[in-house]
Amino acid sequence: MRVMIAEDSVLLREGIVRLLEGAGMHVIAAVGTADELLARVSEEEPDLVVADVRMPPTHTDEGLRAALLLREQHPRVRVLVLSQYVEERYATDLLSGENSGVGYLLKDRVADVEEFLDAVQRVAGGQTVLDPEVVSQILIRRKPKPLHRLTERETDVLRLMAEGRSNSGIAGALVISESAVAKHVTSIFTKLDLPLADADHRRVLAVLRFLEGA
């Protein structure tokens, strides 16, 4: 797997390089600005980009805007965005466009090597990954309409869906059967008034409803 990293902190950037290369991935570039990232992706088009949300010159959302542009101009490239803080809008923005092979993680997650590498592999494989802390904070703050229609178990399933877990992953986490998970997922789609579509698309729509509180 060919990976490109965009992170202005030299220590964190080099740490991520070592982690990914130690896991057998090929880091083809590690840059410190969003402009450098966009230029290098246009030249080499990696399989995966790992980018910080806040980058020079303003350290606001340059990395996020670069990630959104990459999703538009290079849809084959998977994108994993790292953030220092929980910012729901960033997660929503990322998921609102093309939603396969995209992830949003807190930087603290990098310290948990196994979990971080698992997220990288899942995003690279085309899955959607959302940091559990983001999901938990949203769940604590609110359970707005029509999410109030969901049972406690369905809310648990939706929370894990929002983290990017498959039905088998949800079944393992909740210690229930995959068929039970499938029934809960179908019920969630119905209660959230989601139109018929392919299963993966409906899952992302459900997660967006969860993030937006709609």
Low-confidence stretches: none
* Percentage of residues in helical conformation: 40-55%
- Order of secondary-structure elements: EHEHEHEHEHEHHHHH
CA-based shape: globular
Q: What Rg do the Cα atoms give?
A: 17 Å
Report the strand count: 6
Overall number of structural domains? 2
CATH superfamily descriptor of the largest domain: Response regulator
CATH top level of the largest domain is Alpha Beta
In angstroms, what separates the terminal alpha carbons?
Answer: 37 Å
Q: Layout of SSEs?
A:
Blueprint: E1 2-6, H1 10-22, E2 26-31, H2 34-44, E3 48-52, H3 62-73, E4 78-83, H4 88-96, E5 102-106, H5 113-124, E6 128-130, H6 132-141, H7 152-162, H8 167-174, H9 178-191, H10 199-212
Helix pairs in contact: 2-3, 4-10, 7-8, 7-9, 7-10, 8-9
Notes on the structure:
- With 214 residues, this protein is of the alpha/beta class.
- The protein folds into two domains: 2-131, Response regulator (Rossmann fold, 3-Layer(aba) Sandwich), CATH 3.40.50.2300; 142-212, Winged helix-like DNA-binding domain superfamily/Winged helix DNA-binding domain (Arc Repressor Mutant, subunit A, Orthogonal Bundle), CATH 1.10.10.
- It has helices at residues 10-22, 34-44, 62-73, 88-96, 113-124, 132-141, 152-162, 167-174, 178-191, 199-212, and strands at residues 2-6, 26-31, 48-52, 78-83, 102-106, 128-130.
- It has a six-stranded parallel beta sheet, with helices on both faces.
- Helix 1 (10-22) links the parallel strand 1 and strand 2.
- The N and C termini lie far apart (37 Å).
- The mean pLDDT is 85.
